[in-house]
Amino acid sequence: MNGVRAFDEELKAFAADLRRLRLDRGNRSYRELATRAAKSKTGIRLPVPTQSDAFRGDRLPGLDGLMGLVRILHSYDEFGQERPVPPHNSPELEPWRRRWRDLAALAPLRRSPAPEPAAAPARANRFVLAHVLTTRTNNNYCAAFSPDGRILAVSGEDDEDTMVQLWDPVLGLPIGTLNGQRGALSLAFSPDSKVLAVGDMAGTVGLWDTTTLRPTGPPLPGSRGSIDAIAFTPDGGILVAADDEGIVHRWRMATEETLGSPLIGHSGEIRAMACLPDGGLLAAMRDGHAVRVWDLTANRTLGSPLIGSMRGPLSAAFSADGSLLATVGREESALWDTATSTVVRSLDGAAGSGAAVAFSQDGRLLATMSGGGTVRLWNPSTGAPSGPPLTGHNDLLDVLAVSPDGRMIAACGETDALVVYHDRPHAEPAPTRPLAARALASALREHQAVALPPLSSETGVALRRPAFSPDGGRLLVRTEDRRVLTWDPAARVQLPESLPTPGSTAPWGLGFPADGGPAVLWTPGLPLSRPLSLVRHVAFCGATGPVAVIGAEGRVSVLNTAAAHVPDGVSDVYALAAGPEWSVLAAAMGERVVLWDPADRAPTGLELEGHLSGVGSLAFSPDGKLLATGDIDGHVMLWDVTALRAPGRRLSGHTGPVHDLAFSPQGHRLASASEDGTVQLWDPATGRPATDLPLTGHAGAVRGVAFSPDASLLASAGDDGTVRCWLVPTARAR
What we know:
With 734 residues, the protein is mainly β.
């Protein structure tokens, strides 16, 4: 028997036994098993895609992943009741461990692919590797381009959570994260690119405004199973989603109400859907090996399944007009004509494990991926290859997306890498980049920050905390002599703008509220609970407020709200920070940091203790899960706000007091400014420096730091009267 076929048959039998074990233990859903693992405190992680692959026999899971799944299944008894998770050396697990070893020994060796024949000159590869980006997740399993090609959405999972991240695929810069969206398994943009629909493992669909990155309303209820496929009708009027049992749900977008009864015609997971202009819906199965056609207007299926001879495709995709279906599997891949249920052509070389497939919206390009990340391009009209494979990276990838115009291709998978290729037409050869530009790209690729020439105030007066406007077009810096200087950070010129300043006060706070308008404390119209002779720090929350300030006497005052509360005993405060949505306030009081809910009338707050010297700077991460604190001994500490009883992590690198802290808008970097004249960049996930060396150049203490909204630029201000800006790398070293 062929070795590959023998391995596949044994793997299918192994998966069948796993399914029987799951059935014997109460037939728990993927979501229930993942939740049980998370609550078990064993460190076992069971992502839905991993469970799906294991139970279907699509690939051999790693030994640790398999044994984790088996242990969680054995944490239910034969009556489906919970019991303790068995230890890793439990005798009942040994048969599964032996079977895995036998399968691993039987698995065929991965051979290097045969050299590709030389492409004809007319078919030379026009795509180049444009970006290798680093996501905040280490297992990415879904990606989609917006119809206008300006946004690339990627869903993934890290050690603790799942998230959807948005990127600018042209510039290779992060746009933002959909905060609050969990368990995303499928993505679809509305035809006008204004809404992103996200299907999750909880059986609901979230709708997000792509401009504000906020939900348009509450999630749409779907089913008890996970939402594995999702699509808009061509006019954007209806959203269609399929769950993991093959049931199709519909909503009318104008009212976000359920449209008709669920469509039932499959018995298993739907791998691809296409909504047609004539009101039809095409759906392709993963294991049912068939294509079903629905009439969405009449709410019924049409005829028998179109295709019934596919051999277990791992991935499938329809062309936009529904005329073609591409399927990629472990053993064979093909291009089908859905009208005649015939194979147009076999896609030789596209089959293999880790398969993925995607069409461009205009139907002119088909991309497939297999073998751990090799992307192949095809002409859908003929089924012939269109140039040599795309390579240039070393990551294990199994997720693929093609931009609507076919000019960009994105790939991601079981690492934190996001690979983006750009089309370079022969008629428009890419110009040779100057040596300086190549050196800059190399430095950023090697994860080194690049310093720009300093911006100097005309009098050399000492500068304090900087602030970027929400659009990144202005950089405001307050001076020690109570003025506000404004620069254009891109053009690197000082602007003639001025802001009203308090005429008789010492240094005060400056920042931007969420509505985008500049704000300077002590301007007319701000209600004060009592006169303040000095405002030395400010924290903004929300679009119109509230605002918290520290007065000269070291007490905290809250402006623009009557509901906020400051606990008794909060005095002699030196630094102040507010969490997102005004959820928590933190105040530095000597060596202690006090946290409290400003809406809670409780008399005291929770204290963090760990610093051995006075704390002078505070910053919350954008999601509010981390609090960074800095003291006069030069130490930075990171605290988990969701588990405040746990000790903080100490970050050591400065030799002087830490004057300011700032998280990047995406939360993946933390910057600290110190009396020692340096700026340190940190990775909050690991607590380690994000660059090999601290950022230097100031001829004195650094008093403030700020990230631009896209996190590509870091600004610092110091006693030497200069503002220094660094280009911050967004791609990791390879």
